[in-house]
Amino acid sequence: MAALMGLRAVRRLCGFALFLSQLYVLSGRAGSLMTTKHSQPQSTFAKSLTSTSTNTPYFKAAESTEIPPYVTKCPSNGLCSRLPPDCMTCNTNYSCIYGKPATFDCKVKPHVHCVDQNNHEQENFTINMTCQFCWQLATTDYVCTNSTNCMTVSCPRQRYNATCTVRDHIHCLGNRIFPKMLYCNWTGGYKWSTALALSITLGGFGADRFYLGQWREGLGKLFSFGGLGIWTLIDVLLIGVGYVGPADGSLYI
């Protein structure tokens, strides 16, 4: 009788254990289904975010408008004929007759706005210019670099290699930046009138030579009392005609 009751207890325990295992399995499947359902919208949302972030640079690139650097040189709503050459594109004719007036058809570049004489905006226009290359222009039509390493007071007069740039309102053929050999023409700030006045009044003490930066000659005139007056007279003549100049080789003001 006791053995029968023990067997029944074992069966009940086995049944209860089987029920718990089935309940555990069912709860695991339900959790996986819930996870799948919740993860699907999240993945879709993640994909949408990914696609949006991927396409964002494309839209930004399409919406961004870069302004070319030449636009800063172009006056807005000014006369088209007065635009700098960097603001237009012209059909130049190199077979024109040198020194004669020439007319060329031009068109403004993008982002450039100009008007005609009647204040009407236009894109195509003509310009009138003299048929000549840029390096053939007058010296007042271009700006060149200066050199302070050459001697302006020398025989023969020295030249230096300069880089010249045509002014904005001048039109010409060829390159607007060109090299050119120029005479030394820089100044150190010395005045011819001051040097001559010192030579006449205090030349016997070498004041003129000291002013021009020639301290050796100044000391020679100082201790020789202007070469007993002879050196003083010679310096007055040499400074007066411009033969004696500043020690740095520059021109008088």
From TrEMBL:
Family membership: Belongs to the TM2 family.
Highest taxon in the source lineage: Eukaryota
UniProt organism field: Chunga burmeisteri
Record gene name: Tm2d3
Membrane topology: Multi-pass membrane protein
Keywords for the protein's UniProt record, in alphabetical order: Glycoprotein, Membrane, Signal, Transmembrane, Transmembrane helix
InterPro entries to which the protein is assigned, alphabetical: TM2, TM2D1-3-like
Pfam families documented for this protein: TM2 (PF05154)
Transmembrane segments: 190-210, 222-244
Domain TM2: from-to ranges: 189-236
Subcellular location per the Swiss-Prot or TrEMBL entry: Membrane
Signal peptide: 1-28
Protein name: TM2 domain-containing protein 3
GO terms under cellular component: membrane
Major site of localization recorded for this protein: membrane
